[in-house]
Design goal:
This protein is α/β, with parallel strands linked by helices. The chain is about 40% helix and about 25% strand. The chain has a single domain, classed as Rossmann fold, CATH 3.40.50. The longest helix is centred in the first third of the chain and has 14 residues.
């Protein structure tokens, strides 16, 4: 288990997310909806049937909720950022501002709870999973998508691995995800690489932000029409599915 140290206290971290402005993240909304919809199709054999009630924690501007609605789910979201909650509600999505520690959802009411690229941000992921377990129905499914620090890409990059960021408080592998699930009453039963699609220019800007060598120069030389191209890519993210231990 690898973790960020030193770091801010939990209250400071949550307050920062609640006040954050995320226009850059939200600029790829349609691309994210497409990626999420494809992921739901890919995992259909393991997920609840259409019509199920779904909660997405850390839903940002609601791209997963949009995809889930299109898929046929009754989708709800939770997000700390007031800015992103307002963007999601303007799209007609059901989003509550808050965190897993402060919500108004009824225990045992969801068939599926999702953490898309969220668990690494949580000050106390073990406590969060324990709370999520209370929200799930007995046959419910937990979905965790996470930056996997156990991949060959991560091992090759070492300290330069692009997901080692100050906002990522914990770095998981398949083994540690299995372990934390087991500690909180879950059994992880399926792991799969996560591919998503984003515009090439956005990926370039993220690469510059993460200080990947030569990307600033390449970005300046890339024509506008190429920057708008949708690019499917895999960047060491893994989707894990878990069920409640019986």
């Amino acid at each position: 288990m690898i973790f960020e140290s030193p770091r801010f206290e939990a209250g400071t971290i949550v307050a920062g997310y609640m006040a954050s402005q995320e226009s850059a993240h939200d600029s790829q909304y349609s691309m994210r909806v497409l990626s999420f919809y494809r992921a739901l199709q890919k995992h259909a054999g393991y997920l609840p049937a259409r019509g199920a009630k779904v909660l997405d924690i850390g839903t940002a501007g609601g791209a997963f909720l949009d995809a889930a609605k299109q898929y046929g789910y009754d989708a709800y979201g939770m997000e700390p950022s007031a800015d992103l909650v307002a963007r999601g509600k303007a799209r007609g999505l059901q989003i509550e501002q808050g965190t897993i520690e402060s919500h108004s959802f009824t225990p045992g009411s969801f068939d599926l709870v999702c953490l898309w690229d969220v668990i690494e941000h949580l000050p106390d992921p073990k406590a969060a999973l324990a709370e999520i377990r209370k929200l799930l129905k007995p046959q419910g499914i937990l979905l965790i998508n996470f930056p996997d620090i156990g991949t060959w890409q991560a091992k090759l990059a070492g300290r330069r691995f692009w997901w080692i960021l100050s906002v990522h408080l914990h770095h998981f592998t398949e083994r540690s995800i299995r372990h934390i699930c087991s500690l909180t009453g879950f059994e992880a039963f399926h792991f799969q690489r996560y591919w998503q699609t984003l515009e090439f220019g956005y990926l370039e800007r993220m690469a510059v932000h993460y200080k990947i060598p030569l990307t600033a120069l390449i970005t300046r030389l890339t024509p506008g029409f190429i920057q708008r191209l949708p690019i499917p890519y895999y960047a060491s993210q893994t989707t894990a599915l878990a069920r409640i231990k019986q």
